[in-house]
Predict the 3D structure of the following.
Amino acid sequence: MLDDNPVTDLTQDQCWDFLGQHEFGRLAFHLAGEVHITPVNYVVDGQRLIFRTAEGNKLLGVTMNNDVAFEADEFTDTEATSVVLRGSAETLEGDEADAVDNLPLRPWVATTKLVVVAITVSEMSGRRFALHKPWAHMRSQ
């Protein structure tokens, strides 16, 4: 029997809690008239998301147009959760960038990422879905 309401909207506090419990998401940004999306590892710092990057398309994109979107999610066999946000990205410098060294944020890949970027959130939504997968038995293990 299916749940009467398989979709639950998350509160803002639940969205922030979810983001704080995870460290991997996808950043969407504009570059040269196109929308790009790339995975990043991040940390929550107050009401901002912080990530590190190096010179390249991601940094160029958020520098030329700071309007970004971000999504983090997880799923199990019975439930999926997704938090999506929009905001403004800015590179941090000086003491503000140095303070990030005290946060649990390190590159997952052994590369040098000296630029610190903060996303200030302007809107955020989250949902939790009770999954019903009648086709699951058909998938290869």
